[in-house]
Structures are given as C-alpha cells and as structure tokens.
Design goal:
The chain has eight helices and nine strands. The chain is of the alpha+beta class. The chain has a nine-stranded antiparallel sheet, sandwiched between helices. α1 packs across α2, α1 runs antiparallel to α6 and α4 crosses α5. The protein starts with a strand and ends with a helix.
Amino acid sequence: MAMIFNSSLLREKFIIEEHGPEDEKSGLDMSVCSNRMAIDLQSGEMIPESYVIRAHNMHSCARMAATIVNSYNQTGPILNRNPPYNWEDAWNIVIDEYERAHNPHRWVAVYNKGRIIFEAEGHHSFLDVIEQCDAINKGSYETSFEMAQAAFKKAGKNVKIQYNSNIALVVDIERMKGRCGMILRGPERTTTFNMIMESNKKGSALNTAQCITGAAAFLEGIQLAYMVGINLEKISRGEIESHTPEDLKTREARKRLGRLNADVITLENKAKVRYRPERPNFFEIVTISERLAQKKLEESEKAYHDSYQEDRK
C-alpha cells in the first residue's frame, strides 16, 4: 500500500552569540547553516517511523530523504532490521562523482527521535542540541531554540540564538497524484514553480521516492546552471584559465546537467508530469546566466574605468 507523504525542506541559518553581564557579546559568536527535511513514514499496517535529515545542500538532503522513503516502501521499517540498514551505502547512492570531486564541504546527518543514527563527512554539533530539544517538544520546532538557550544557560553560558529560515521545497504526495513546489533563488530574482504528478497507469501508485528525486534534480540543476553560465563567461574573458580546478569544475558541471535532465525525463516517463509555469530548461538557464554575467562584468569594468579616469584628473 502506498503512503501519503507530506514534507518540507527548509534552508536554515542559526546565529549563536554569547552575551556577558551587560548584554555585550563575549565568548561564542558563530553561525551554523543547514538544510533540514523531516519525514514521517507510514504505509498500511507497517510500523511508522520518523526521521530528520540534515545536509550541507538542498539536493543531497532531498535525495537522502528519497533513499530512505524508497527503502521503507520496498522493504518495510528500517530501524530494527537484521542485518541493519546500511546507511553508508545509502549516502554513497546520494553522492555522485561530481559532488565527490567538487564539494569538499558535503555532509549529512540523520536523526530519529532526536538521536543521531547516521552522520557522514562531519556536521556541527549544535544541530544535535536542536534536534534533541525538538524531540522533547514533540512538534513545536521553533520552541526548541528557546529550550536550547535554557540548556546553555544551565551550563553557565548566556547564549542568544537567532533563527532564519525559508522553504525550498514542499512535497505533497497521495497514492495517485502529488505536487512538489520549489522556491529557487536565481542571480536576479527568486522564482517559484510547481511540478504536478499523476499516475499514468490505472491502479498503479506514484513512486514517492522518484518524485522527490525529480525535485532534487531541479534544486541542483537550476543552481548549477547559474554557476556554469557565470563561469563560462569568465572563461571566455580569461578570468578563469584553462585546465585550472575552476575550469574543470565548470566543464564537469555541464555534463552533470545532462545527467540531471535524464533524472527528470525518467520521472516524466513513469508519470504524467505538468509544470506551472513551464518546465525549467537547464541549458537555457546557462545561456541566460552567461548573458547576465557578461552584462554585470561589463558594467563593473566600465565603473572601474570611469573611476580610474576620475582619479587621473
């Protein structure tokens, strides 16, 4: 039996500051960024399980969620399997060659009831405190920050926690239909688009994991396309030299866009997919980004030239 699945992916930033007796800053002063996706799994009579996935970037967070959802749907509850579920293998499925080669900051952490059950590549321990507090609060997530402040105070630290977040992805999937809504930041504006999926086989349920994977392809592909466009313009101007790490990263990113496009096509072959507005085209975004970069670089060069001429007067 297929599950009803609802979740959101949040881009988060915590600013943690320690204050002295006169409310001046002292001691701790740091920021911690994370992407967070909480998932509740329940299908038919199977034992329900809940997880929180945190990761360095949006697409890895969503793909780790998809991998967990897929395993639960295929094989049943994960926590008490014998032999145990191989979390390392799941993470290796998520991280492709491009990510492995060009993102040294990648990391993931998976929690169940506030307890970390898997982590790879390293994450900030402050996030563990937040998840422990959230597990105690049972659903009142933002109240967890107040609890974390109180915990620091008991430890003798007067800490203030500022929290900023925005939604990057909303997933609502029923048996035969679903929607993924994405909010994406571009070089000039933030855009929103929806991917609406329907089963294209009578009596056959949507593949929830595949829908999330398709959304992850857009989350990664659109951001990657903007980067490629900007770097291609810099390469053409000689600001990025041939055979340098940045040049290699740009060229491999273009190949990665082709693979991400294939992920989307796979979903479109398995389900009826509609887009509002139109389906983003990664390679068109590269071209648009390249033109924007050209314009901005030319404006920057002109401003520098005008300033130089002014100084010579």
